[in-house]
Amino acid sequence: MIDLRIEQWHAWAPGLEIPEAWRDWAQQPYRPATDGDAQPDCAFLPAMQRRRLSRLARMTLHVAWPLCADGEQLPFVFGSRHGETTRTFALLGDVAAGQPLSPTQFGLSVHNAIAGQWSILRGQRGESTAIAGEADTFEHAMLEAAGLLTDATPTALVVVAEERPPAAYDTWIDDVPFSYAVALRVGRAIPGDRAPGRTDWRLQLTAGDGSRVAGDWPNALDFLRSLLGPHTPLDHPWKKRRWIWQPLP
Questions:
Q1: Between 217 and which of 135, 176, 221, 239 could a Cys-Cys bridge form, CB atoms 3.0 to 4.6 Å apart?
Q2: Which domains does the chain show, CATH number per domain?
Q3: What CA–CA distances, in Å, run from 98 to 87, 93, 101, 168, 191?
Q4: Do residues 58 and 50 touch, judged by C-beta distance below 8 A?
Q5: Cα separations (Å) of 125 from 75, 76, 116, 164, 231?
Q6: Cα dihedral sign for 169, 170, 172, 176?
Q7: Could you give the count of Cα atoms lying within 13 Å of 204 in the half-sphere of its Cβ?
Q8: The pLDDT of residue 152
Q9: H helix or E strand, kind and range, residue 124
Q10: For 175-232, what is each residue's pLDDT tens digit?
């Protein structure tokens, strides 16, 4: 059981690019009409640096960037169940066609590449972690962030992002309704301290019943709904794990 404070949040999805749009979505969630090739412009980066970023990397940096102050050093946790499916699929196509693989594309396809790009582009010298879990990747990322919090490091940054995969994966990947990235600036809950705009949550892990049925929305988006709404408790079961989120008074 851990208690966490959500200090700030930022999210992006096609057509959901400002806080007001996300608050409306939280009231009546829906799948955007099209996913397409829409992506954040990441105008805070020079063009040469932007050119190397995949769509998933742009989404991640876009939501994380405003939650880290200039010169601030924050532990960083990147969570994604599927990672760079688009880049990996292109590499597999090259293999099938007998074409030589690009070392750069291969290097940027590995799961911790985006965390590395964040560290380099943002000048972060602290700890970073990349996590690939199952349907409960979000909870594992938050648990990892809680483990990074200390007296000297009271805040961590968590980003959970998924890109809608190529159609060839439709038979196997059914838990990404649309491309999205959710960033949370996380700190330790402080009893009796209720700062404006911040909410405290308790995360508890109990035994599950083996069910593999996920909810209507990925856990990160489901949590964002509650965060932007009435702060209702959440129950996220997956296989032998059952994660319970409880807002603290």
A1: 221
A2: 2-198 (3.40.47.10)
A3: 17, 9, 9, 19, 60
A4: yes
A5: 9, 10, 10, 31, 34
A6: positive
A7: 11
A8: 87
A9: none
A10: 999 999 999 999 998 877 777 778 999 999 999 888 777 778 999 999 999 999 999 9
